[in-house]
């Protein structure tokens, strides 16, 4: 994944890349401590670091192999089969999976299954785990990566990966190896072998997110897609073990025997699914293909087309529409109601006496210094809210009322910064730190030390934070 990060930066230097390495825990299934729960915390931390510098906090998860399974658990709470403290779905702009076994792999299964398949098959799988092609046999990761569907459940004790929360785009990239059979160095016409896989995970599984967790399925977000990156590798390259070292080269002889037996990828994977005696040749063929083919399971993350697909996906998602500037004009939306990122401040830009104005609810600090309503509203009762400013008027205490119909999720956020926060059971649209909303001559800017609303014509303004409120003009 390190190389993929470098490839991404070559194409899009403004990206911020964060690498989550779970290699020391790759023998665990994704519902175990130290896997998806750690990823959930990592997502939150990366999102918060982006928000701290004025970004949207939207994280795009790019996951290879079982990393895609971890992401599915990390974004769900325990009631949905996830973790105790899942990452908030509004932190995630999209999940891109690369060769992820959404419906398992024929290289997954119980230790008993592998041993029952015969000594040669078992020894072949043992060598495969030694070179990192498959998880260590007998671990929960190896067991729970079994192929499954509605008719063939996962082994006992294996939690089925849950769907991602509704609205998150899911982009599935699969590798597909095609073996070109050669005779004396020349291609044999019409004799190519489409492995229908990356050597380890079949194409049905790599593109198998939909319906992989039963019904009902939450609706994926806009931009969801499936892509195939195919590549060709010659039979001579496979049999010679070209590009492989050490134990990996030991598979070459068996892979050659597998090439003589297999008719197409369907034969190979149907055979591996049953784990029959003699399937060591098929297993070796898959392992060698995964290690030597440019789009094989172990090499696809370095494929240039993968980096380009990821960059194109990120650019097409419009994760932070206002990134061209820090200010969003909400006049086309008829104003905006918004909250600070932590939910401690709630404000609105809306029409006051037919002119644009700003109004915020009292904080505890502002309440402590607020005058009585009799001082502000001598002609009638009411409640006090800290300052409102209207075109050509001063900033001050509002006589009565407050923000109408609060909270309302308004159209400005769908076309704007896109962040939300849940507070006291209500969902608030968020104005991120470093961002500004503008309505006519009135603007409100959010910072970590409070919100400042000002009138560009009169110069009137107020600044509100937890400590209190300050008026200007």
Overall description:
By secondary structure, the protein is of the alpha+beta class. It contains 15 helices and 20 strands. The chain has helices spanning 2-11, 36-52, 67-74, 111-116, 119-130, 140-144, 203-206, 235-240, 251-261, 265-274, 280-292, 304-317, 364-369, 373-376, 411-414; strands at 59-64, 92-98, 170-180, 182-183, 186-187, 193-194, 225-234, 327-329, 336-339, 346-352, 355-360, 385-390, 396-398, 420-423, 426-429, 436-439, 442-447, 450-455, 461-465, 468-472. The strands form five sheets. A six-stranded mixed β-sheet has the order 8-16-17-18-19-20. Strands 1, 2, 3, 6 and 7 form a five-stranded mixed β-sheet that branches. Helix 5 packs parallel to helix 11 (280-292) and helix 9 crosses helix 11 (280-292). The relative contact order is 0.11.
Core attributes:
single chain, 473 residues, alpha+beta, 6-stranded mixed β-sheet, 5-stranded mixed β-sheet, 15 helices, 20 strands, elongated
Percent of residues in β-strands: 15-25%
Q: What gross morphology would you assign?
A: elongated
Largest sheet: 6 strands, mixed
Structural class: alpha+beta
The pLDDT mean sits at 81
């Amino acid at each position: 994944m390190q190389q993929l990060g470098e490839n991404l930066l070559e194409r899009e230097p403004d990206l911020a890349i964060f690498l989550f390495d779970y290699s020391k825990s790759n023998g665990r299934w994704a519902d175990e401590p130290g896997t998806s729960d750690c990823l959930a915390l990592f997502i939150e931390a990366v999102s918060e670091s982006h928000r701290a510098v004025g970004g949207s906090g939207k994280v795009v998860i790019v996951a290879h192999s079982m990393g895609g399974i971890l992401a599915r658990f990390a974004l769900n709470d325990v009631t949905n089969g996830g973790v105790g403290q899942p990452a908030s779905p509004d932190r995630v702009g999209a999940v891109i999976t690369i060769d992820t076994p959404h419906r398992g792999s024929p290289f997954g299964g119980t230790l008993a299954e592998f041993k029952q398949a015969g000594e040669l098959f078992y020894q072949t799988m043992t060598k495969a785990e030694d070179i990192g092609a498959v998880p260590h046999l007998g671990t929960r990761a190896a067991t729970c990566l079994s192929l499954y569907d509605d008719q063939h459940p996962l082994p006992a004790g294996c939690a089925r990966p849950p769907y991602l929360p509704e609205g998150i785009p899911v982009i599935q990239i699969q590798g597909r190896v095609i073996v070109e059979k050669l005779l004396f160095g020349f291609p044999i016409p019409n004799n190519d072998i489409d492995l229908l896989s990356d050597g380890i995970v079949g194409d049905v599984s790599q593109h198998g997110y939909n319906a992989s967790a039963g019904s009902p399925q939450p609706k994926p977000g806009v931009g969801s897609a499936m892509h195939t990156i195919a590549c060709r590798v010659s039979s001579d390259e496979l049999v010679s073990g070209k590009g492989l070292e050490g134990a990996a080269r030991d598979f070459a002889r068996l892979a050659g025997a597998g090439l003589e037996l297999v008719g197409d990828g369907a034969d190979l994977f149907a055979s591996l699914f049953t784990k029959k005696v003699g399937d060591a040749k098929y297993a070796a063929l898959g392992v060698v293909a995964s290690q030597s083919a440019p789009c094989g399971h172990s090499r696809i993350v370095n494929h240039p087309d993968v980096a380009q697909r990821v960059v194109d996906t990120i650019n097409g998602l419009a994760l932070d529409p206002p990134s061209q500037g820090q200010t969003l004009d909400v006049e086309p939306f008829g104003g905006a109601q918004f909250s600070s990122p932590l939910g401690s401040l709630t404000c609105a830009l809306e029409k006051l006496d037919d002119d644009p104005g700003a109004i915020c609810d009292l904080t505890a600090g502002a309440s402590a210094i607020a005058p009585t309503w009799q001082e502000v509203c001598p002609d009638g009762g009411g409640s006090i809210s800290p300052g409102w400013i209207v075109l050509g008027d001063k900033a001050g205490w509002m006589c009565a009322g407050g923000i109408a119909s609060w909270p309302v999720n308004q159209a400005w956020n769908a076309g704007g910064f896109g962040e939300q926060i849940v507070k006291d059971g209500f969902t608030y649209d968020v104005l991120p730190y470093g961002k500004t909303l503008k309505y006519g001559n009135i603007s409100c800017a959010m910072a970590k030390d409070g919100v400042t609303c000002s009138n560009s014509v009169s110069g009137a303004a107020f600044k509100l934070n937890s400590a209190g409120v300050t008026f200007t003009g």
